[in-house]
Amino acid sequence: MTFILIIFPHSMAKLTCNDYGFECDFVAEGEMETVIDDFRKHTDDEHGIDYSKEAVMQFLLRKQGI
Predict the structure, then answer these.
(1) Higher pLDDT, 58 or 11
(2) Is the model's pLDDT at 9 over the cut of 50?
(3) Does residue 35 contact residue 14 with C-beta atoms inside 8 Å?
(4) Which pTM does this prediction carry?
(5) pLDDT tens readout for residues 33-47
(6) Which neighbouring-strand residues pair with 27?
(7) Which one of 24, 26, 32, 65 has the largest count of C-beta atoms within 10 Å of its C-beta?
């Protein structure tokens, strides 16, 4: 059996650095694509970690319990 997961890019999402072990108040909130891009840019610029889009998508999916 194959499962197909469809992610809607205009779905609302929220990620915070604090949720992922950083002592940081940064929050990315809005449409999913924007949140992914903003979170990746912030973690690269401020924390020196270059997460892939796929890794950040996994953060969002786990947060949503998917």
Answers:
(1) 58
(2) yes
(3) yes
(4) 0.79
(5) 999 999 999 999 999
(6) 16
(7) 32
Q: What is the CB neighbour count within 10 angstroms for residue 20?
A: 16
CA nearest neighbour of 21 among 41, 44, 43:
43
CA distances from 38 to 2, 4, 16 (A): 32, 26, 11
Structural tokens at position 49: 């970690």
Task: Provide the CB-side half-sphere exposure for 64 (13 A, CA).
Answer: 13
Look up residue 51 and give its two tokens: 């997460």
So what's the pLDDT on residue 23? 92
Asked if residues 17 and 25 have their Cβ atoms less than 8 Å apart, the reply is yes
Residue 8: how many CA atoms within 13 Å on its side-chain side? 5
Q: Judge whether 23 and 43 are in contact, CB under 8 Å.
A: no
